[in-house]
Amino acid sequence: MTAPLPPLTIIGHRGARGLAPENTLAGIETALRLGVDGVEFDVQRHPDGGLFLLHDLTLERTTDGQGLAAAQPFETLRRLDAGHGERVPTLHEALDLIDRRALVNIELKTWNGCAAAVAEVIRAQMALGWDAAQFIVSSFHLPELQRFCSALPEVPVAALYCGVPLSGAAELATLGAAQVHLADEFVDADYVAAAAHDGRPAWAYTVNTPEAAQRLTTLGITGIFTDHPERFLRPVATAPVQ
């Protein structure tokens, strides 16, 4: 029998992509119904200026469209089927749906002004009552993350890595990162400890079994991104949206 997990922050990955289409309103609502601590999703900036939820730069894997997302007119992009009849949502729609019910982790997927545009939206939400601490903004594109920090320094940011940085945890201070998010297969206990010593918790992605989560907690991980929140949280009466 697997030992009970220590307390972990549970973040729905791209909504709850194991239960509903990723980066859609249905996926986000599914994660919220399951009682996640937070929801993560990917945001891109369209050349027209709109902000939309999509992981890949191309459309084929997650929609019925083809080619580069940025090459499509924004309204055409919005009409695509993102799975089970779901549409490609805007950042505003996602935030309106969440409505402060959970932490929001916005991953910046593009670097063409995405940081500044997302900062503008979050600033407007804060004027409506959201707290800066209800957001985390993350990115693998560290220069874009720095641009976000410059635009809205009060909102926490997290550096995303798919390996262990040669520079060690010291780079997090340079970036102004409040957290670090690591690929589960590359979690290094010494790195995690160094980050934690400086007050920067480490979360891991993408963790889909309690056994994997148990292993990661022994390495110092305090939060996980999961496609399957239902494996870590008590299911609610409402069935997942399909």
Report on the structure:
This protein has helices at residues 25-33, 74-78, 91-98, 114-127, 142-151, 170-175, 189-197, 210-218, and strands at 9-12, 38-45, 51-53, 103-108, 135-139, 157-161, 179-183, 202-205, 223-226. With 242 residues, the chain is of the alpha/beta class. α1 (25-33) packs parallel to α3 (91-98) and α4 (114-127) packs parallel to α5. It starts with 8 loop residues before the first strand and ends in a 16-residue tail after the last strand.
Beta content comes to 15-25%
The stretches of 5 or more residues where confidence is low (pLDDT under 50) are: 235-242
What is the helix/strand order?
Answer: EHEEHHEHEHEHEHEHE
Q: Alpha-carbon distance between the termini?
A: 31 Å
The largest sheet, given as strand count, sense and whether it forms a barrel, is: 8 strands, parallel, barrel
State Rg.
17 Å
Side by side, the strands of the main sheet go 1-2-4-5-6-7-8-9
* Helix percent band: 25-40%
Q: On the 0-100 scale, what is the average pLDDT?
A: 94
Structural shape: globular
* Total of DSSP H or I helical runs spanning 4+ residues: 8
Structural class: alpha/beta
Number of strands: 9
